[in-house]
Design a protein that fits this description.
Blueprint lengths: L1 E16 L2 E8 L14 E6 L3 E6 L8 E6 L3 H8 L5 E8 L12 E7 L3 H13 L7 E7 L8 H10 L1 E6 L9 E2 L2 H7 L7 E6 L2 H13 L7 E4 L15 E2 L2 E2 L6 E3 L9
Parallel strand pairs: 7-8, 7-11, 8-9, 9-10, 11-12
Antiparallel strand pairs: 1-2, 1-6, 2-5, 3-4, 3-6, 12-15, 13-14
Helix pairs in contact: 4-5
The structure holds flavin-adenine dinucleotide (FAD) and FE2/S2 (inorganic) cluster (FES).
Length: 266
């Protein structure tokens, strides 16, 4: 745990989509840092003098951290200006995780939308490393357009080793992939709820309709884990910024089993 903001060096920066980059960070001093985090947790990532933003880890390794960052405002835009060799300050990890170690023996469905695919990339890296512990892995990803599809290199790899279903909302006429909302490809899969656990991350509206679709397919709420996004300040349950219906999203979440937060309303 890095409880104080600590500088890490950018060792790789890769464009994923418009205003969206994948950063790989390692310890910046001589002493190697071993990272200890769980899938779905986030770090508070900062630029000195500007501020902090919670960003989910999208890798699974003790040697480095990867963050997929979309520039939407003061902190994230400034982070995107940094280059390989520059430092990024982080503290954490914070929050709850997708409890993958307790889900062994299940079929796993991974459903993501837009930048919500990022923490699920970490889950897929975990599942690949622990492949023998799980049954089938079904992936359903939705992005706005072919240009907005993140992690294209990983997608090719996941297509070979897992059951990958990718869709885009809109595409030019010559596009060869699936077009439509992510709920459509989930429904078309015809999967039932037997021996399955679902991990979801995406915009709130997408998660709402994915849950409705899963419900119509016979899934129970205790089979569904989702990650909630909320404006945060301290990240550790002190300031109350992230609170909804008495729940601290930073500390009690961001990952919740759906049946546990049925009373949580914005
Ligand atoms: C647990 C968690 C994990 C996250 N993981 C990632 C990630 O992996 N990659 C990534 O790019 N982003 C992620 N985010 C979102 C990221 O934290 C925000 O985009 C960032 O804090 C915005 O800060 P800013 O200073 O750049 O923008 P600001 O200048 O603060 O705001 C810019 C605009 O974005 C809106 N906004 C800011 N934060 C949020 C939010 N949390 N929800 C909805 N609207 C918001 C503001 O209202 C404003 O319109 C995550 C958020 C949470 C809570
Ligand atoms: S962000 Fe401060 S209490 Fe959650």
């Amino acid at each position: 745990m890095l409880s104080k903001s600590t500088p890490l060096k950018i060792v790789k920066k890769e464009k994923q989509a418009d205003k969206t980059y994948l950063f790989r960070l390692e310890g910046s001093g001589k002493k190697k840092i071993k990272f200890d985090y769980k899938i779905g947790q986030f770090y508070q990532v900062s630029v000195p003098g500007i501020g902090e933003a919670p960003i989910s880890v999208c890798s699974f390794s003790e040697d480095f951290l990867e963050f997929n960052i979309r520039g939407v405002g003061d902190v994230t835009d400034k982070l995107l200006e940094l280059e390989v060799g520059d430092n990024i300050w982080i503290r954490g990890p914070y929050g709850t995780s997708y409890p993958l170690d307790k889900l062994k023996g299940n079929n796993i469905m991974i459903i993501g939308g837009g930048t919500g695919i990022a923490p699920l990339r970490g889950a897929l890296k975990y599942l690949e490393m622990h492949r023998a512990d799980f049954e089938r892995v079904h992936i359903f990803f939705g992005c706005r357009s072919p240009e907005e599809v993140l992690f294209k290199k990983d997608m090719h790899h996941w297509d070979r080793i897992f059951d990958l279903n990718l869709t885009v909302d809109k595409a030019p006429a010559n596009y060869k992939g699936k077009v439509g909302l992510v709920t459509k490809i989930v429904e078309e899969s015809g999967l039932d709820n037997r021996n399955k656990v679902v991990l979801i991350c995406g915009p709130p509206i997408m998660m709402k309709f994915v849950i409705k679709t899963l419900e119509s397919m016979g899934f129970h709420y205790d089979q569904i884990f989702l990650s909630h996004e909320r404006r945060m300040k301290c990240g550790v349950g002190m300031c109350g910024h992230c609170m909804i219906s008495g729940i601290y999203v930073c500390k009690d979440g961001p990952v919740f089993r759906y049946d546990k937060i049925l009373g949580m309303h914005e």
